[in-house]
Amino acid sequence: MFDIKADIYKNTDDSWQVKIYLTSYLTDITVKGKIVFTSPECIKGQSFDISSTPGELTTYAVCDVPSIGADNGYCDLKFNFVTNSRTYPYDFCKAVSLASPANGIVIDGVIEDGEWNSACAIVTDEEQYASHLKGWAGKEDMSAKSYIAWDNERFYFCGETLDNTFATAEEKPTLWQGDSIQIVVYHDSENNHYVPGEAGKTYHELGLASVNGVPCAYKLKAQTDATQTGEMTYADFALTNDGNKNVFEFSIKWSDLFGYEYTPSAGDTLGFSVVYNDNDGEGRRGFVEYCGITDPNALSQLYLMNTAPSKDEISVYVNDKKLSFDSAPVIVQGRTLVPLRAIFEELGADVSWEDETKTAYAEKDGITLSITIGGSVMTVGGKEIALDVPPQLVKDRTLVPLRAVSEAFGNTVDWIDETKTVIIH
Question: Which CATH architecture has domain 98-307?
Answer without folding.
Answer: Sandwich (2.60)
